[in-house]
Design a protein that fits this description.
CATH architecture of one domain: 2-Layer Sandwich
Distance between the termini: 90 Å
Shape: rod-shaped
Radius of gyration: 28 Å
Number of helices: 3
Strand order of the largest sheet: 4-3-2-5-6
Order of helices and strands: HEEEEHEHEE
Largest sheet: 5 strands, mixed
Number of strands: 7
CATH topology of one domain: Nucleotidyltransferase, domain 5
Length: about 140
């Protein structure tokens, strides 16, 4: 007795599922919108600012931002700089340029004084220290 050959089922032809593509596209659009809409925090480092009871809100003036992290890294307007290069970079700014120092609360007091002294030597006397509002 002869055996019958096994029956091979034919699969339907492949097709593109549009619903899955729409889900992926909506997710991508939402991701790009959220990353582009938040310009306030873009470029800022994760610095834990100290708190102050009587902190004044920052004025709407375009200022130079000098950031010092808890790992003693220095950033000028979001770009990493070395302590040795900072004096030459600060000398390029006009003397009436406002400068904001954002230093992590764990930084040594002497480092902040060194930054203030460096700013003063380069003629930048409009210096503010960034703090978090208490509360």
């Amino acid at each position: 007795m002869k055996k019958k050959p096994p029956v091979i089922k034919k699969f339907p032809p492949p097709r593109i599922e549009i619903i899955n593509l729409i889900d992926v596209l909506i997710t991508l659009v939402a991701f790009f919108l959220l990353t582009m809409v938040l310009p306030e925090n873009r470029g800022q480092l994760e610095i834990e600012l100290p708190r102050a009871e009587e902190a004044l809100p920052a004025a709407g003036v375009k200022e130079v931002v000098l950031e010092l992290t808890d790992k003693h890294e220095l950033f000028l307007n979001g770009q990493p700089v070395k302590w040795e290069e900072l004096a030459a970079l600060l000398a390029d700014y006009p003397q009436d340029t406002p400068l904001v120092i954002r230093a992590d609360r764990s930084c040594r007091y002497q480092e902040i004084i060194n930054l203030l002294d460096l700013c003063a030597r380069n003629g930048l006397h409009r210096v503010a220290l960034a703090v978090k509002e208490s509360g």
